[in-house]
Amino acid sequence: MSKEAPFPDPKSKAESEEGTVFAPKFDAEGLVPVVATSAATGEVLMLAYMNEEALARTIETGEAYYWSRSRGRLWRKGEESGNSQRVVEMRTDCDQDAIWLKVEAVGIDAACHTGRRSCFYRAVPLGPAPGGGVSLRFVDAERQFDPETVYRHAGAAKGTLKSSE
Amino acid sequence: MSKEAPFPDPKSKAESEEGTVFAPKFDAEGLVPVVATSAATGEVLMLAYMNEEALARTIETGEAYYWSRSRGRLWRKGEESGNSQRVVEMRTDCDQDAIWLKVEAVGIDAACHTGRRSCFYRAVPLGPAPGGGVSLRFVDAERQFDPETVYRHAGAAKGTLKSSE
């Protein structure tokens, strides 16, 4: 996999859907959305983004790399928190513009920077909304670590305070 | 839920992450990515997008509506194929810029327009790529319906041939 162009250009619709050439489609910002689920429980842990380099590194190393949109840089999951993700399986979808990772937690089982196992710790109730809008309900919201401690420590060591991972 | 502004503007980081007010963040194109998983098996079925209206209708009706980027219009899942999605649970993530739907298939259990149960029917092998790039491997790729028949029929009825749903 060369450093310059790790993946070929997107193919025709038919080739993209029924072929075996991996030619992922990145959006206008050069990103592709990635769903990470727990290989153990199937739970959706997070939705994040990869650029070409993050995708190439993830494939090569079997460790999850993402592109941080807020920080504008490549990010190895767990580089600060220590809680990285080992990729058990990677899949792409019909039009090759989305990625699904089944991952195994390395370290504390908490994919969310708030310290929770999953970023999806609030349910949106269904049905006609009562006056005042939709009110979220916390579910599976227990923290596995204290983000104040984990990220303050990591930030202090590098002279920067990170708002999120 | 008013027709004009179904959701409040996004809140501060703290309120967005730890509050109960549902104030989803739409991207520059007015969309939010949505992961749909099977309520029965946990499998990731598809990654699609919702605009404000699609999200509001999904919440109100408990049926999955999406925004079709290729067709530039609101789309009730299954409006042509007959294979719609009943929402069992909806969740949002820490920064409220992604949605997770647990769905139950109504009709044939096939979320993908290619006729397959899931859009993620190909695995991306991990490890250093051999010369010639990454070659996808078909998994869970059995078709539940014939897309030629289903969409030709639906397209013919409306005088248009649809390339995908």
List keywords for this structure.
homodimer; 165 residues; alpha+beta; Ubiquitin-like (UB roll); four-stranded mixed β-sheet; two-stranded antiparallel ribbon; disordered C terminus
Number of helices of chain A: 3
How far apart the termini of chain A lie comes to: 28 Å
3D shape of chain A: globular
Order of helices and strands of chain A: HEEHEEEEEEH
Helix content of chain A: 10-25%
Instruction: Say how many strands of chain A there are.
Output: 8
Largest sheet geometry of chain A:
4 strands, mixed
Q: Count the domains of chain A.
A: 1
- Uncertain stretches of chain A: 156-165
Structural class of the secondary structure composition of chain A?
alpha+beta
Any idea what the radius of gyration of chain A is? 18 Å
Fourth-tier CATH superfamily name of chain A: Phosphoribosyl-AMP cyclohydrolase
What is the overall pLDDT average of chain A?
A: 89
Query: Could you name the CATH class of chain A?
Result: Alpha Beta
User: In what range is the share of β-strand residues of chain A?
Assistant: 25-35%
CATH fold label of chain A: Ubiquitin-like (UB roll)
| Chain pair sharing the greatest interface | A-B, 57 and 58 residues
Q: What would you call the quaternary organization?
A: homodimer
The CATH architecture designation of chain A is Roll
Strand arrangement in the largest pleated sheet of chain A: 2-1-6-5
